[in-house]
Amino acid sequence: MNPIRIAKNWISYRRTMSELGNLSNQALSDIGLTRYDIRNIAARSFR
């Protein structure tokens, strides 16, 4: 994997973590997620 792709994926991972982390528990529940799910979902963007 090239370094540019790794950097872009890391940025996407951090953005996803931040955006989902800023949602309230109610908003997460409305979209069918829990706080526990955030890291797994963000990790998918890092692959």
Structure description:
The chain is mainly α. It has one domain. The chain has three helices and no strands. The chain has helices spanning 3-21, 25-30, 35-46. α1 packs antiparallel against α3 (35-46). The mean pLDDT is 92.
Biggest sheet features? none
What form results from the Cα inertia axes?
elongated
Indicate the low-confidence ranges by residue numbers: none
First CA to last CA: what distance?
A: 10 Å
Helix share, percent = over 70%
Compute the number of helices. 3
H-E string: HHH
**Mean pLDDT over the residues:** 92
CA-atom Rg in angstroms: 12 Å
Structural class: mainly alpha
How many structural domains in the coordinates? 1
Give the strand content: under 5%
Number of strands: 0
Domain YjiS-like: 4-39
Summary, kept brief:
With 47 residues, the chain is mainly α. Helix content is 79%, strand content 0%. It has one domain (3-45).
Write out key terms for the chains shown.
single chain, mainly alpha, 0% strand, YjiS-like
Secondary-structure map:
Layout: H1 3-21, H2 25-30, H3 35-46
Helix pairs in contact: 1-3
InterPro entries: YjiS-like
Domain YjiS-like: 4-39
Pfam families: YjiS-like
